[in-house]
Amino acid sequence: MKNTIFLIFLAATISLNSCAKKIYTSANTLQQITNSDEFTFLAERANPSNMDVVNVMNSLPNGSSQKFLNLDYGYVITIKNNELNVDLPYFGRLYTPNYDQSKNNYNFTSKDFTLTKSQDKKGNWNYKIVTKDQPTNLTISLEIYSNGKAYANLNSSDRQSISYDGYVMKNKPDNK
Questions:
Q1: DSSP letters along 123-158, please?
Q2: pLDDT class for 18, splitting at 50, 70, 90?
Q3: DSSP letter at 44?
Q4: Which fold, 22-169?
Q5: For position 81, what pLDDT does the model report?
C-alpha cells in the first residue's frame, strides 16, 4: 500500500513539473526588446473570430474540433527601425474582398504608425499599434507576457478581427 501511494505521489509530482511555465524568451532579452521597441512576434496559432470558419474547419475530413489553427513557421509581425512589417494569414469574413487572393491576407509594410506601450501590475507589456498609411484602419493590440509568450489581436475596418498566439524574439541581424 505504501508503494502504491508513493508511486501515485511520484506520478503527480512529475506531471505537475511538466506543466511548469515554459520560457520562450529570457528576462534579459525581454527587457532589451521592450526598451528598444524592436522585436519580432512569431505567430504559432491563428484564432479566427468567425464561427463560419470554425464550422467549415470542423466539417472537413480529419478536421479537428478546435477553434484555432496551427500555423507554419514564418508568419510574423516585425518592428524594426521605425518600420512595421506584417505577414500573417487571414481567416474570416472580409467586408471588401479583393480579387487578388494574396491581398486578402495581412501582408504589408508601414512606415507611418503610432506605437503606445504600457506595463500592467503583473509585469506584462501591452502594445497598441495603429497604422496610418494603409488603405484601411488597422489596430494591432499585442500583449507580451513575462515568459516571452505573446497574444496579438488585429482589428481592421474592412474585416472581422482575428487573433494570434505566439512568442516574441529579438530581430535577426541584417546580412549586409
A1: S-EEEEEEESSSSS-EEEEEEE-TTSEEEEEEEETT
A2: very low
A3: E
A4: Lipocalin (2.40.128)
A5: 86
Nearest-angstrom CA–CA distance, 16 and 95: 46
Average pLDDT over residues 28-38: 87
- C-alpha torsion angle, residues 85, 90, 94, 100 (rounded to 10): 70
Q: What percent of the chain has pLDDT over 70?
A: 76
**Quick one: DSSP state of residue 72?**
-
- pLDDT tens digits, one per residue of 66-77: 667 788 888 999
Mean pLDDT of 92-109: 83
Q: CA-to-CA distance for 81 and 96, rounded, in angstroms? A: 31
Pairing relation of β-strands 76-80 and 39-48? antiparallel
Amino acid at the residue 16 = L
